[in-house]
Amino acid sequence: xTEPAPAVGEGAPPAPPRPRSRIRRGARRxxxxxxxxxxxxxxxxxxxxxxxxxxxxxxxxxxxxKDVIARANAPRAITPTxxxxxxxxxxLAALTDTWGQSRAGGARTHQGxxxxxxxxxxxxxxxxxxxxxxxxxxxxxHTLYVRSPDRRWMYYYAHLxxxxxxxxxGAKVAAGQQIAxxxxxxxxxxxxxxxxxxxxxxxxxxxxxxxxxxxxxPLLVGxxxxx
Length: 227
Ligand SMILES: [Zn+2]
Hints:
two-stranded antiparallel sheet, elongated, Dup_hybrid_motif, transmembrane, membrane, Cell_wall_metabolism_enzyme
């Protein structure tokens, strides 16, 4: 029985180690070069990213500053929205724009809207707020001043016949809540039942009689809360 011949090469002396280890050393050297090169690239790329990042955040910061300045310089927001028509039972289509009409023989202009209604009709809050003043005046008769929660708007209700029971200074009202009854007090004229409704833009420190009146008509008509 003869043993099978060893496979070719099995008995051959191992390949001389030098060239192989030289190749390995060479490979290792190439490897280190690669690693070093990649590292350098990474550092370079990293610094570029940092630079890019810095300039980006700089421009972002600049944009934020510009936004803040623009906002500070912009005119204060516009007008109240979503108002409720302040006399229950009156239709939006029945309103007429009486802003700016001559009053007192041209001595002044009308700074509000007159909403014609029957005497005793419910006056409801056009918007939420706090009753800041319950006031009787020769011109307005029984009046109410309701300030918005953000204190930027004053809603003025005049020629009232009477106030709703819960009405007192400091009381909060919800939009649509009844606050009074339509009347003809003040200079409305006997039997000329209507609600005089005004809106004033208020600065932070403005008192109830101050502020800058604006025309309620487009705000009511644009609100879409027809009743
Ligand atoms: Zn009026």
